[in-house]
């Protein structure tokens, strides 16, 4: 009997050509530019396998498909089977739906050691995801070594203790936490990812989410309204009023940071954050108010968009493109800038209609820090419930754009893992898997309308083959039956969103 073919993400076309036989190990590859750039054709016969890709990336994705046909040994670090594996003879023709198939890892809230990041590159590649967005800086930590500003990591990468969970009563892990990647670590991550056709997108978050930088260099903050010298790397979570000052010195400082970022990361996109910038300090600050007057701006929101535009032009002049969270849209952007939509579909729709490229990652659908089931056993209560099925039924093209020319502005989609309540690799694995597998199929495969998606078929492939692949890869995913005892976090308080979750259906 021919072995079952349980490919994830589902390819466009599978044509069994009859029979099966032992795989002798031969793989011939080639490039045919008439195929889609990341597309491929995989042919398995008694003579071995042939993979023709539209580019080398296509060949690489074809190899990932072949790997799934080759059984679990192909997912272990060393083979353990003595017999050659039996493969079905077939032709697979395939190409991705979206060019940006991303995953964001927040290494700022909790530092994830370099080895774990490299492992995530492998896990993304195995699922045909091609963008790793590293959220490198935030209030709670600065994780990228910058040669000209050593205090960013000497001071900004460390905190004395950490809020455990995100609820009341407050609980603390009294152990100091921190860490950072050297520039060479990051070059290694970039090179390792490039070898797997994964692009690393660095994020330097400004003008909010920057308290770790202010703790290192107090002159970056609004020192005319708060004692920035007394600020420390933040130890708990949530909105933060301590934001960067809108001064020339701050603009120059971050240009210095970005110059080093550009040296390390060769990709077209640089993420500058732009989210959740509280304006209280700017309202109170004579310096900020003088700036608003001098620039002839309307208000503090104008100031934020002036700062974002500054880096937009700065990056464009250096041949790169700015991408930021959907708040950057407020106030207008330069042409090449792209928007990452995290709040419903609203920002994505507005950005696409204004002619900007968009990556859809709404928190209502694909925030993997949110819990994946109801119930007291689920660690750690946060956000809305996004089940595996919810993620499988996520539709990246906003309904309002579907069928319009603006839909082409949606260059892709991304799942985001914030790590306030995911403190180590085990928690990161648990929150990310298996939902990232469903997400990978959404990003790669041409799935029908969410209502018509065959979730039962996806689950069947998961149960028949893919959980075993994750086991072979050593992924500590959430089992379909719920957390294992050591995956629970009894007593760690969290906070669920009280507003009802709005989805693509109601957007
Ligand atoms: C909102 S998404 C944030 C993050 C938090 C996240 C928690 C975004 C641009 N900002 O700072 O970590 O919610 O889900």
How many domains make up the 3D coordinates?
2
CATH topology assignment of the largest domain: TIM Barrel
Q: Whole-number average pLDDT? A: 95
Number of beta strands: 21
Tell me what the CATH architecture of the largest domain is. Alpha-Beta Barrel
The value of Rg in angstroms is: 23 Å
Alpha-carbon distance between the termini?
A: 47 Å
Profile the largest sheet.
8 strands, parallel, barrel
Instruction: Specify the CATH class of the largest domain.
Output: Alpha Beta
**Which overall shape is indicated by the principal axes computed on the Cα atoms?**
globular
Major sheet strand order: 6-7-14-15-16-17-18-20
**Helix share, percent:** 25-40%
Fourth CATH level, the homologous superfamily of the largest domain: Glycosidases
Q: Uncertain spans, ≥5 residues at pLDDT below 50? A: none
Strand content: 15-25%
Give a concise summary.
The chain has two domains: 13-94, Chitobiase/beta-hexosaminidase domain 2-like (Chitobiase, domain 2, 2-Layer Sandwich); 100-496, TIM Barrel, CATH 3.20.20.80. Strand 17, helix 10 (346-353) and strand 18 (357-360) form a beta-alpha-beta unit. It starts with 12 loop residues before the first strand and ends in an 11-residue tail after the last strand.
What report would you give on this structure?
There is one protein chain. This protein is α/β, with parallel strands linked by helices and 507 residues long. It has 2 domains: 13-94, 2-Layer Sandwich (Chitobiase, domain 2); 100-496, Glycosidases (TIM Barrel, Alpha-Beta Barrel). It is built from 15 helices and 21 strands. Strands 6-7-14-15-16-17-18-20 form an 8-stranded parallel barrel, surrounded by 6 helices. The mean pLDDT is 95. Residues 275-276, 325, 342, 363, 367, 369, 383, 418, 420 line the site of ligand TNX.
């Amino acid at each position: 009997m021919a072995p079952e073919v349980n490919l994830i993400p589902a390819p466009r076309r599978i044509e069994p050509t009859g029979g099966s036989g032992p795989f002798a190990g031969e793989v011939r590859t080639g490039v045919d530019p008439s195929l889609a750039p990341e597309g491929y054709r995989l042919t398995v016969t008694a003579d071995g396998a042939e993979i023709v890709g539209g580019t080398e990336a296509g060949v690489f994705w074809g190899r990932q498909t072949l790997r799934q046909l080759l059984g679990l040994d192909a997912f272990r670090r060393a083979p353990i089977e003595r017999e050659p594996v039996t493969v079905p003879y077939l032709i697979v023709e395939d190409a991705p739906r979206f060019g940006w198939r991303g995953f964001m890892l927040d290494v700022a809230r909790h530092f994830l050691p370099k080895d774990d990041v490299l492992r995530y590159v492998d896990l993304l590649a195995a699922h045909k995801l091609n963008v790793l967005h590293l959220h490198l800086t935030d209030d709670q930590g600065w994780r990228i070594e910058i040669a000209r500003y050593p205090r960013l990591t000497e001071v900004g990468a460390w905190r004395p203790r950490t809020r455990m969970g995100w609820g009341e009563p407050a609980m603390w892990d009294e152990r100091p936490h921190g860490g950072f990647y050297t520039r060479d670590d990051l070059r290694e991550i970039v090179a390792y990812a490039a070898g797997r056709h994964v692009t690393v997108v660095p994020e330097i978050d400004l003008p909010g989410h920057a308290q770790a930088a202010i703790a290192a260099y107090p002159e970056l903050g609004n020192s005319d309204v708060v004692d920035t010298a007394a600020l420390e790397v933040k130890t708990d979570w949530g909105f933060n009023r301590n934001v960067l000052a809108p001064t020339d010195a701050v603009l120059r400082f971050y240009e210095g940071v970005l110059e080093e970022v550009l040296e390390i990361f060769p990709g077209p996109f640089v993420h500058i954050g732009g989210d959740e910038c509280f304006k209280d300090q700017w309202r109170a600050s004579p310096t900020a108010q003088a700036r608003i007057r001098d620039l002839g701006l309307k208000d503090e929101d104008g100031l934020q968009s002036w700062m974002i535009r500054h880096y937009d032009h700065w990056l464009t002049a250096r041949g790169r493109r700015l991408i930021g969270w959907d708040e950057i849209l407020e106030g207008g952007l330069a042409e090449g800038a792209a928007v990452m939509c995290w709040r419903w579909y609203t920002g994505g729709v507005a950005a696409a209609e204004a002619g900007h490229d968009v990556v859809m990652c709404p928190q209502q659908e694909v925030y993997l820090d949110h819990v994946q089931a109801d119930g007291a056993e689920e660690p750690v209560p946060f956000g809305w419930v996004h089940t595996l099925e919810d993620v499988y039924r996520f539709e990246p093209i906003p309904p309002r754009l579907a069928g319009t020319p603006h839909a082409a502005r949606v260059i892709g989609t991304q799942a985001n893992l914030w790590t306030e309540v995911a403190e180590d690799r085990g928690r990161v694995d648990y929150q990310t898997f298996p939902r990232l597998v469903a997400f990978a199929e959404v990003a790669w495969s041409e799935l029908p309308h969410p209502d018509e998606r065959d979730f039962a078929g996806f689950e069947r492939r998961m149960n028949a083959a893919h959980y075993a692949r994750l086991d072979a890869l050593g992924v500590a995913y959430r089992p379909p039956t719920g957390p294992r005892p050591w995956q629970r976090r009894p007593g760690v308080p969290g906070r669920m969103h009280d507003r009802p979750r709005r989805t693509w259906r109601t957007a």
